[in-house]
Every structure is written in C-alpha cells, then in structure tokens.
Amino acid sequence: MINIMLCCASGMSTSLLVEKMKKAAAEEGVEVNIWAVGANEVKANATKADIILLGPQVRYAQKKIESEAPGVPVANIGMREYGMMNGKAVLAQAIELCKK
Q: Does the record carry Ubl conjugation as a key word (predicted)?
C-alpha cells in the first residue's frame, strides 16, 4: 500500500486529480491510499504519507513542506499533468519516486 498525499492551496483543486489517480490505480491493480490537503494541513498529515506531491500553486513552498515532513519525499506535479488532470501519469510519478 502506497500512501500518497497531494497538496495544493486549499486541497480542493487536487480532489479531482485524486479521483483520477484512484481510478488509474484500480485499473493497474496498485494498492494506494490517496488524499488531498491544503498547504496548511501538511504538518498534521505528513506522518501518514509515503510521498507528498505538490500542485503547481504551492510549488514555491516545497522547502517549507520538506521541513514539515522530514524523511518523506516531496515532489512537484508537472504543470502539464496537473492541468490535464492526468491521474495515470501522476500515479506513475508517485510510484517511481517511492522506489527511490
């Protein structure tokens, strides 16, 4: 089971992406727990995550989020993948980063 936390300004814009990622995971037979939070909720949720993916609107806060989630990989979701809500590609990114 991979625990993937998506982070955006308020947790709302990533909600659709979460659903698309869950659908892609089900199609690929990958066990995941995916949820979205606002940037101000990262610290409270960091211990539950294996990886944190940031939406474009909070990529400026990557260093701060990394400090709030020590030991948890933090990465930016690509602008194209985010804009197109490409759940399959973002899921693949998360899985690849968890392997490192």
A: no
Rounded CA gap, 60 and 50, in Å? Answer: 21
Assessment of whether the complete model's pTM goes beyond 0.85? yes
Q: Identify the weakest region by mean pLDDT among 3-17, 20-34, 78-92.
A: 3-17
The model's pLDDT over 50-62, given as tens digits with 9 standing for 90+, comes to 999 999 999 999 9
Catalytic residue list contains 7: no
The catalytic residue among 8, 17, 69, 74 is 8
Counted domains in the chain: 1
Nearest to 49 by CA among 88, 81, 97: 97
Domain that holds residue 12: 2-99
C-alpha torsion sign, points 20, 34, 88, 72: positive
For residue 6, CA distances in Å to 9, 93, 98 come to: 10, 12, 14
Closest CA to 69 of 98, 40, 49, 89: 49
